[in-house]
Amino acid sequence: MKKGFIRLIAGAVAGMLLLGGCDALPKGTDGPREVPLSIKADFTKDEKKGGNWETYGDCKVTLKDGTAVVTERSASNTGVAVPCPDYRGNKIKTSASATTTNDSMTLSMRYEIFGNVTYVNIAGGAPDASGVVNITGTVDIPANAENALIYLEANDVRDYTVSSFEVSIEGDFNDLTNVPVESLQDPTKTASLSAAYADYFKFGVASPATVMTNKNDGFRSLIKTQFNSVTPENELKPENVLDAATTLADPAKYNECPAVHFDAAKPILDFCKENGISMRGHTLVWYSQTPSWLFYENYDVMKRPQMMGE
Fold first, then answer.
1. Which of 132, 201, 218, 244 is 20 to 30 A from residue 99's alpha carbon, by CA?
2. Residue where a domain terminates, one of 142, 169, 196
3. Is 181 among the domain residues?
4. Tens-place pLDDT, residues 121-176
């Protein structure tokens, strides 16, 4: 009788656990959800209505006959993207097919770690005689990455049309959707490198402007504690210094010298000034990240490039 009663109670408890299993999920979750192992852009649907794609950067995207036509691109890295934030901690495979007059196109990844942005080129290709380019590549997304997405860029700012774009898991899926990312450590508890070498040289760091505007103050504390010199990462390269909107609005006025601005570098400049830290400029001339329109007659990319000495 006693053993039977114990078995009855044990069965009832097991049943309640099974029925109420969802209540035992980690706090802050909405319950188990299935993560698709492949994300395919649907260019018959709007980006905000289940299309699995989004506009990336300053450009215009028009849906036409199941394709995405990308025009009015202000920079070479603008176009369309496929978000894949649930794929962190996994190797992914991505592929895209497009038609373009650009010389080459590249699939790249963008993600954030502690609010700072990282870019990775995955794979590239050149269009065939008919203007079609097919690109496929694989890449690992760090486990601590947030807001990961794959985007399609080109070497120039000419239009392109995407017919297919897909991101999928390569191998077994490592589900980290309910695993929080790591937190920052306190940098002020570590001995200062800039202080240790103060009698010999400045101890510098390269930093993007996102560090200065980051919600995590730990990065700014790290710079103030460890370094006495800051070099902008991309903010003083030509793509950020040359003012495309002003120049292209009046090419005749700016024919000899394009308009410039330093908006992208201002957060770094302000931070260094406020904290008495030196800043090194980087860089007025660069092998890439220079807007292609700079090299065209009247800044018109549909015309021939302007030759040196003309």
1. 244
2. 169
3. no
4. 999 999 999 999 999 999 999 999 999 999 999 999 999 999 999 999 999 999 99
